[in-house]
């Protein structure tokens, strides 16, 4: 049965209440606003076209621009299906905590939840908290699941099962200052060696101008380090074994650490993405490598003093070429214990159909549908220079950005420790990598016994 979600005047139910059984240690980050009205419904959305009428679905989202884009559209979905949607919105760390507590307690809610596949996916799926979506995704030809990027789907696939539907994708790219490169007659770096050399030339601490910045905190840096490792031909885990002490990985970690040590601003060890983008946006840094999904932090005039001077380039090539991360940063899934799985899928299918992915992407949320990226209307809200870089990176990128294990936090700390030692001047990088590799292998072995 084809469903045309064309809207009606049903009101969206929004709740900011703390989920049952979670205690009072943290409160919701924010409640997403909803449109008070939707366009009038046609006769196509009445009667037997509402098989789920009267059901209520709880949707838990992160405090994220995607939820800001999709929530005002929910009255259309409610009107077309008769399903009431309760929305709970949390800051990122609160979200993981809430979901973990709920699922551990065996709660039937939330029905649908937004989550980070590479951070939480292994834990959620292997604990039996996630309902596989394979049958749902292929049931309706009009949904066109094949239109969703294969690499994005790879990120949300665990043990051959589809654990979630991608909603936000991101890739590693190079941000740079067009004006500084022009003034110094330096071409845009295409290789890692060229980036290192250009960063050194533009590094002038006495004038508060720094050559390079990126995440320097132990855990946050790992997701950005991945593009360096892949581009050198390495990986965190190879054939089930830790591989961060290989020549390729050691070279990548040394390059990343030395860029921050030799050409970075003060305090890099305390920088995650907000701090890195912050100092770049203040006009004090020539180069930044980070996720393309965060571009507005550099290009929005309200956030950036150099908004009209920012350039974008493919991630610099290493020995294996340019192989940036190309991952699903956020996805939607269904609680295995939900009593409303069919209605929950109806919500996910609606939120991730071509029309709504287009609407969300027009507000700057990089989605996973190929047809939307190929549609000029789907890319016009992104910087013109960035769009072809996104498309090319989707083709040559790698579908993970951290060790794919259950104990992600421990694994990230093990890897990040090596780079921190490089930043602080450790000379025996191989020794540090060997130790970290042993720690990562112990984590892999522990997780395999779960």
Automatic annotation (TrEMBL):
The keyword Iron does not apply. Pfam families: SBP_bac_1. Residues 1-20 form the signal peptide. Keywords: Signal, Sugar transport, Transport. Residues 25-49, 360-380 are annotated as: Disordered. InterPro entries: Bact_solute-bd_prot1 (IPR050490), SBP (IPR006059). Residues 27-47 have a biased composition (Low complexity). Coiled coil: none annotated. This is Multiple sugar transport system substrate-binding protein. The lineage of its organism: Bacteria, Bacillati, Bacillota, Bacilli, Bacillales.
């Amino acid at each position: 049965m084809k469903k045309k979600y064309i809207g009606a005047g049903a009101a969206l139910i929004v709740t900011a209440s703390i989920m049952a059984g979670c205690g009072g240690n943290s409160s919701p980050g924010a409640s997403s606003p909803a449109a008070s009205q939707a366009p009038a419904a046609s006769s196509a959305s009445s009667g037997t076209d509402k098989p789920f009428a009267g059901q209520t679905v709880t949707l838990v989202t992160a405090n994220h621009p995607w939820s800001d884009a999709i929530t005002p559209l929910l009255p259309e979905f409610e009107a077309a299906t008769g399903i009431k949607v309760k929305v709970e919105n949390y800051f990122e760390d609160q979200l993981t905590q809430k979901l973990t507590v709920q699922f551990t307690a065996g709660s039937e809610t939330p029905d649908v939840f937004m989550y980070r596949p590479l951070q939480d996916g292994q834990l959620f799926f292997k604990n039996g908290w996630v309902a596989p979506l394979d049958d749902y995704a292929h049931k309706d030809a009009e949904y066109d699941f094949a239109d969703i990027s294969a690499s994005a789907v790879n990120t949300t696939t665990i043990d051959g099962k589809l654990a979630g539907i991608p909603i936000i994708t991101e890739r590693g790219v190079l941000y740079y200052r067009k004006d500084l490169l022009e003034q110094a007659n330096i071409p845009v770096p295409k290789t890692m060696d060229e980036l290192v050399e250009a960063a050194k030339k533009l590094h002038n601490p006495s004038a508060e101008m720094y050559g390079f910045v990126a995440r320097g905190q132990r855990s946050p840096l790992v997701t950005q380090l991945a593009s360096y490792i892949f581009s050198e031909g390495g990986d965190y885990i190879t054939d089930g074994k830790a591989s961060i002490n290989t020549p390729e990985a050691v070279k990548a970690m040394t390059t990343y650490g030395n860029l921050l040590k030799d050409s970075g601003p003060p305090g890099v060890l305390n920088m995650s993405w907000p701090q890195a983008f912050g100092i770049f946006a203040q006009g004090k840094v020539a180069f930044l490598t980070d996720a393309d999904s965060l571009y507005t932090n550099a290009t929005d005039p309200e956030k950036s003093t150099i908004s009209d001077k920012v350039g974008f380039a493919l991630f610099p090539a290493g020995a294996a070429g340019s192989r940036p991360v190309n991952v699903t940063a956020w996805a939607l899934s269904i609680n295995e214990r939900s009593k409303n799985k069919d209605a929950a899928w109806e919500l996910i299918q609606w939120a991730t159909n071509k029309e709504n992915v287009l609407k969300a992407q027009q507000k700057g949320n990089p989605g996973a549908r190929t047809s939307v990226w190929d549609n000029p209307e789907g890319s016009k809200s992104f910087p013109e220079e960035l769009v072809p870089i996104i498309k090319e990176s989707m083709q040559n990128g790698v579908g993970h950005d951290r060790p794919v294990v259950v104990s992600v936090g421990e694994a990230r700390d093990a890897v990040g420790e090596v780079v921190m030692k490089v930043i602080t001047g450790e000379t025996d990088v191989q020794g540090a990598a060997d130790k970290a590799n042993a720690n990562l292998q112990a984590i892999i072995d522990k997780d395999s016994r779960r």
